[in-house]
């Protein structure tokens, strides 16, 4: 890897800023001051900034308690994004494993490991996502059976995959789906003549939202939590 790219990743700076750091003679590679960003850095090279060893970090994994009112994209003209809540170097390199609507709250996973997030988002991997849903109207008796069978959403060519519905109260349910179509939960309830008033994702696969996280807070996943999706 080029030295300037290595500095961007380890120091969280732009290419331009990396060039300035190099010019100030603050960087050594294997004990030698290097001023050129084009120099190639081998995997075992000892790169230091003002005497401090710089190391590339491995893939990163976080869970966030997504609050309402923030959007799951890198940029938005009108609303804050979840990325402004992430106080991490190179936060823009992370992506969301299964986006939530702006008004949906709950468990959001962020990573820079594309293979890992694919296991969560691809319907092929049959990863459950469980939502607590508050409905405008009381749940009709046949909805659980309809969702178990699959329903046709407006604008789609195929029915939804079998989903599990558990009634909590007249207007409150837990819904587990394995897909992540655009506005899927809201459209499923629209398809059976109801309306979602509020939506909260409680779990993804075996991983539940950490209840010590307040809305807007996040934490790194533990190695065991990361491994839950790799088996
Ligand atoms: N389904 C929805 O309709 N919205 C979400 O945010 C997630 C699932």
TrEMBL record:
Domain RNA-binding S4: residue ranges: 1-60
InterPro entries per UniProt: PsdUridine_s_RsuA/RluB/E/F_cat (IPR042092), PsdUridine_synth_cat_dom_sf (IPR020103), PsdUridine_synth_RsuA/RluA (IPR006145), PsdUridine_synth_RsuA/RluB/E/F (IPR000748), PsdUridine_synth_RsuA/RluB_CS (IPR018496), RsuA_PseudoU_synthase (IPR050343), S4_RNA-bd (IPR002942), S4_RNA-bd_sf (IPR036986)
Alphabetically ordered keywords of this record: Isomerase, RNA-binding, rRNA processing
Coiled coil (residue ranges): none
Example of a GO MF term: 16S rRNA pseudouridine(516) synthase activity
Gene3D superfamilies: Alpha-L RNA-binding motif, Pseudouridine synthase I, catalytic domain, N-terminal subdomain, RNA-binding S4 domain
Domain of life: Bacteria
Catalyses which reaction(s): uridine(516) in 16S rRNA = pseudouridine(516) in 16S rRNA
EC identifiers of the protein: 5.4.99.-
PANTHER family: PSEUDOURIDINE SYNTHASE, PSEUDOURIDINE SYNTHASE FAMILY PROTEIN-RELATED
Family the entry assigns: Belongs to the pseudouridine synthase RsuA family.
Role of this protein: Responsible for synthesis of pseudouridine from uracil-516 in 16S ribosomal RNA.
Name the UniProt record assigns to this protein: Pseudouridine synthase
């Amino acid at each position: 890897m080029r030295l300037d790219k290595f500095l961007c990743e380890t120091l969280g700076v732009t290419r331009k800023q990396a060039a300035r750091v190099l010019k100030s003679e603050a960087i050594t590679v294997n004990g030698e001051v290097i001023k050129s960003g084009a120099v190639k850095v081998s995997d075992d090279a000892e790169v230091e900034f003002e005497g401090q060893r710089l190391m590339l970090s491995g893939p990163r994994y976080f869970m966030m308690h997504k609050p309402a009112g923030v959007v799951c994209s890198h940029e938005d003209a009108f609303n804050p994004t979840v990325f402004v809540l992430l106080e991490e170097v190179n936060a823009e390199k992370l992506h969301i494993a299964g986006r939530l609507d702006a008004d949906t709250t709950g468990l959001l996973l962020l990573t820079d490991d594309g293979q890992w997030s694919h296991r969560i988002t691809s319907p092929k991997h049959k990863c459950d996502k469980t939502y607590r849903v508050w409905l405008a109207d009381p749940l009709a008796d046949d909805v659980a059976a309809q969702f178990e069978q699959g329903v046709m959403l407006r604008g789609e060519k195929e029915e939804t995959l079998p989903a599990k519905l558990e009634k909590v109260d007249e207007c409150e349910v837990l819904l587990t789906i394995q897909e992540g179509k655009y506005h899927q939960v809201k459209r499923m309830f629209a398809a059976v003549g109801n309306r979602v008033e509020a939506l909260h994702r409680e779990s993804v696969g075996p991983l539940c939202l950490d209840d010590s996280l307040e809305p807007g807070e996040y934490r790194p996943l533990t190695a065991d939590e990361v491994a839950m999706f790799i088996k």
